[in-house]
Amino acid sequence: MIDNIPKNVLEVNSISKDFLNVKAVNNISFNVEQGDIFAFLGPNGAGKTTTLRILLDIIKADSGKIQWNLNGKSNQLPEASHIGYLPEERGLYLDIPILKSLIYLASIRGMDKKDAKKSALEWLEKIDLADRANEKLQVLSKGNQQKIQFVASILHQPTFLILDEPFSGLDPLNQEIFIDFIKEINNQGTTILLSAHQMPLVEKIAKKVFLINNGMELYNGSLSSIYQTFGKKHIIELQFESDVNEFTLRNLSGIESVNIIDDFRVKLTFEQLTDMKSVLNQLVKVEGISDITSYKPDLHEIFLQLIKNA
Ligand code: ATP
């Protein structure tokens, strides 16, 4: 019989962690299934890095339970060879040639040195740094060091990859390239848990999201269901021929918020249950509109809405 039940490769139950008087992680639970791209999203100080460090036993939780189920073994701690980790505070050897460092790191995680060299050279080619293979890491730019650190986390082909803020320090082009790498590695079967605050980037790849604020869960579930549940509002951007008449807009039926963008543009958010027909019937009566754009809330807007309602 084929087992269609998704397999949890990580189960986290009610973990908490305090630092002095800060509740860095406050009673959170989640499961990561095999093949997931699971994104931890939240602002600075939300508790993302603390959670990831607890999972890897770099710091201990005050309470709660963690179970890893990787490569047929169930444990509180995974084997190093099964895990790839890109830490927030990047920590490669700065004064050792890049290729040598990559081969060494893959080999201590169980990879044959010949295979590690072959794979490292392929990845250096992919990230456009093949010609720097014998230079020391310290002479590379910050973004290029970040790319090398990423390669170091995946070279030994981990079953489960943890990326803490993978997009920080990268320019927009390299952020897009990283998005493609993450998708590629996931398609090859690696489960991915990442933390980030760049929601538009995460929206492109995540299958599940965990929204966290002040150490607490705001939402935990699939990306598609968050849009279905919270993304039904109508958001309308209006352009006016002359100054915006804010008073008229604030009195529209079903209006939730009016945000003035500049003298001639305004963003209207309607309450969840307001239908589009009613919105349009009202807008035809508003004078001076020269353009109208309608869109649905993105993840960032849903996040703000959830914080407001928390
Ligand atoms: P960022 O996006 O800025 O990296 P984060 O979501 O990863 O933020 P954490 O680094 O987990 O957040 O921090 C959560 C809270 O715990 C913050 O208030 C932080 O100041 C506090 N904190 C984290 N580590 C320590 C520590 N070692 N000692 C004291 N407080 C800490």
List the helices and strands and how they pair.
Layout: E1 8-19, E2 22-33, E3 37-41, H1 48-55, E4 63-70, E5 73-75, E6 83-86, H2 98-108, H3 113-126, H4 142-154, E7 160-164, H5 172-187, E8 191-196, H6 199-202, E9 208-213, E10 216-222, H7 223-230, E11 235-240, H8 246-250, E12 255-262, E13 265-270, H9 276-283, E14 289-295, H10 299-309
Parallel strand pairs: 3-8, 3-9, 6-7, 7-8
Antiparallel strand pairs: 1-2, 1-4, 4-5, 9-10, 11-13, 11-14, 12-13
The structure holds adenosine-5'-triphosphate.
Adenosine-5'-triphosphate (ATP) binds at residues 19, 22, 24, 42, 44-50, 88, 197.
Structure description:
There is one protein chain. The protein is of the alpha/beta class and 310 residues long. The protein contains 10 helices and 14 strands. The strands form 3 sheets. It has a 6-stranded mixed sheet, sandwiched between helices. Strands 2-1-4-5 form a 4-stranded antiparallel sheet, with helices on one face. Strands 12-13-11-14 form a 4-stranded antiparallel sheet. A hairpin with a 2-residue loop joins strand 12 (255-262) and strand 13. The longest helix is centred in the middle third of the chain and has 16 residues, at 172-187. The model has no long low-confidence stretch (mean pLDDT 90). Adenosine-5'-triphosphate (ATP) binds next to strand 2 and helix 1.
